[in-house]
Amino acid sequence: MIPLRHTHPRLLLLSILITSFSLASTAQDPTIVFTPQWTAQAQFAGYYVAEAKGFYREAGVKVRIEHPSATQPAMMRLRRNECQATTMQVCQALEMVDDGLPLVNILQTSMNNAMVIVSARDTNPLKQRGARVGIWSVGFGQLAICMSIKDHLDYRWVRFAQNVNLFVAGALDATLAMSYNEYYQLVQAGIKMTDRNVYRFCDHGYNVQEDGVYMTRSYYNSHKEQAQRFAQASRRGWEWAAAHPQETLDIVMRYVQKDHIATNRVMQRLMLKEVLRLQVDRESHKREFRLRPDMVRLASRMMHDNRMISREVQYDELVP
Q1: What's the burial of 251, exposed, middle or buried (CB within 10 Å: 0-12/13-18/19+)?
Q2: pLDDT tens column, 124-142
Q3: How far apart are the C-alpha atoms of 31 and 50, rounded to whole Å?
Q4: How distant, in Å, are the alpha carbons of 203, 206, 221 from that of 161?
Q5: Helix-helix angle 265-278:245-258, to 10 degrees
Q6: Which string of DSSP letters, residue by residue, matches 256-318?
């Protein structure tokens, strides 16, 4: 480093002005309130890492993570401008755009679909016409509804909030589950999992990407640089998490304990491992962090064919 006494006065002044401008720009940027679509858990580990390790701060972006509640789900908070960014699945994004809220995907983390159907009594889910099947009350089941209609299964959907109690108690014939979440809840509850009674959507023509980070297009257009810094720091958080799973788990557990979430370290370890696996594209075998046009087309076509959206939403409508 050159001592200041040897620095040309004009260069010193220029350096001071650039630094001052940078600090002023950062100070003027509003805080991004980021709301993941669910309560604190390893599904959102990369964002916790980016906050805890200072990646957002180093990128010059102010971020505050606020989880949703039962009365204020993430998508409602986004609609009401109570947060500037949230995570959601591709199918949810298509519904919101079709409903008149333009969105921009600034970072795609999931490259594979995690949804499964688990049926009781070692029964093939495709042989259970008219079955009572658990589905999340907050959504996420669009592809399952499409499959049920296409295969004339006539499932009777029973909504549940956040756990597998109804299925374990025998009140349901089958239940939807995420391979990183409810699937392991069922395993811990002693439910036997076999190729016969577990139907994985990704293996049957329904491999549509899930979690990505979205902003309203209006917010993105007026805060492009801030949004890009947020996305880059978040990606850095996920890459660090993949390289340091044990330290990442420590960080996740701090967030879980802070919010008093009823879970355990074993469950969060399994979730983190599976979420990281789902981030690797099946074809390229890489973490691509991109929204795939073919998966958007597949989801949009299926949802339009089954009258879940009024038109086919195009890939270009979701990207910057």
Answers
A1: buried
A2: 999 999 999 999 987 789 9
A3: 15
A4: 26, 24, 35
A5: 120
A6: HHHTT-S--HHHHHHHHHHHHHHTB-TTT-SB-----HHHHHHHHHHHHHTTSSSSPPPGGGT
0.85 exceeded by the pTM? Answer: yes
Residues of the chain with pLDDT under 70: 1-28, 70
Task: Compute CA distances 50 → 122, 172, 204, whole Å.
Answer: 42, 40, 35
| Three-state SS letters, 13-55 | HHHHHHHHHHHHHHHHCCCEEEECCCCCCHHHHHHHHHHHCCH
Identify the DSSP state of 252: H
Q: Where do we find the tokens 């995570």?
A: 87
Name the DSSP letter for residue 71: S
Residue 250, phi then psi, degrees to nearest 5: -60, -45
| DSSP letter assigned to residue 168 | H
* pLDDT of res. 9: 47
